[in-house]
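Fold this complex.
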Amino acid sequence: MLEQVRIVLVGTTHPGNVGAAARAMKNMGLADLVLVAPKAGVFPSEEAAARASGADDVLARARVCASLDEAVADCRLVVGASARLRSIPWPVWTPREAAPRLLAEAARGPVAVVFGRERSGLTNRELERCNALLHIPANPAYPSLNLAQAVQVTAYELRMAAQGTPPAEALPEAATAAEVEAFFAHLERALVAIGYLNPAAPKQLMRRLRRLFLRVRLEHDEVSLLRGILTAAERLAPRREP
Amino acid sequence: MLEQVRIVLVGTTHPGNVGAAARAMKNMGLADLVLVAPKAGVFPSEEAAARASGADDVLARARVCASLDEAVADCRLVVGASARLRSIPWPVWTPREAAPRLLAEAARGPVAVVFGRERSGLTNRELERCNALLHIPANPAYPSLNLAQAVQVTAYELRMAAQGTPPAEALPEAATAAEVEAFFAHLERALVAIGYLNPAAPKQLMRRLRRLFLRVRLEHDEVSLLRGILTAAERLAPRREP
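Structure:
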């Protein structure tokens, strides 16, 4: 579905931003880039290619259109980025709200996210071509993201939404409760043997150690390692009469 | 809380990335930037200032450190970015998973997110200084984000979490990175003293113990407790000639 999401850059003036946007798109699995009336020399350009790094395939496929209408003509959902919250009474979505809606529609055909000029963004007229506005939450004192950074955040949210909840990482084998309890018994014996724990009053100390080692969720191999250390310490302790 | 989240850039080679990272930070409300051993000419530099755009206050406050240890010494939670999923079995968090954890701890003092070199990232040794790894979900065929873009995505998730997360439950005071490193040094000495660790080949064993005790995120009082046990064990060990 990610390949059905088009990124449209309107009136871009810095070639580096085109390249960086292409890289951000490819990093997140997007591939469809359209430039509307870029400033002369912006695309194609050496600087765009340099900043794209390994994403030159995205640049090679990119198309240039004369108008926003042309760029989004086949799209069923068009969202326009706006750093300022305009007076126009359009629905405003964060990237997190927009991503699942874009993907749901992308199952049926192309959709677009439109980003405006570096200095001035999209005009009200352009925003009024959109189904909804995209607003990236930001520091109110300094809300305007670099163009490629805004593309990055949006593409990241699209990928997160496409992945759904990531599968839990494969973890090493946890110790069983019985193994952990046997470790605690061994720990208590060893602490008595080395003279750190008073067997007449073990309660608080062992409780604190239990809290630590239960919190970490010991692995099978870690129990063996820790018990090896305890055995080495016990060997040094003076023999006591039982 | 966002101002307690430190962004640490290790070995940065492109001045533009420092400036773009500062802008991304300020856009999201972050302010604490530390550079560890940047390449000569990277900072301060005209290119960094130009790319920072209006975020020159973040650059003006940025500090340069000689080592990662120095940069994170006062931090209670340190997360290291890794594009590749390394063989080292550390916990791996997405930015969305890491953000609320960082903010919960930031309520009480500095925390850090560490980003590595543009070409090679963080070394395994540097990652082993961290409590957890940060992995930005990405296209497996092209997973490596530009440095400033990785900072942007992370800072965005921090802002989203700051806006949405209720205040964290009161947690006991975590140990600082410097306290934890001092514990590891003490642990290694004690293991040598009791004859468990061969000082000629300490690597794997200490790495496994680091992984365990960094994963649990030791509290200040727990470090004292564990070091008390180590001191008791050392007292029993036969004196060795230095």
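The two ends of chain B are 48 Å apart (CA to CA).
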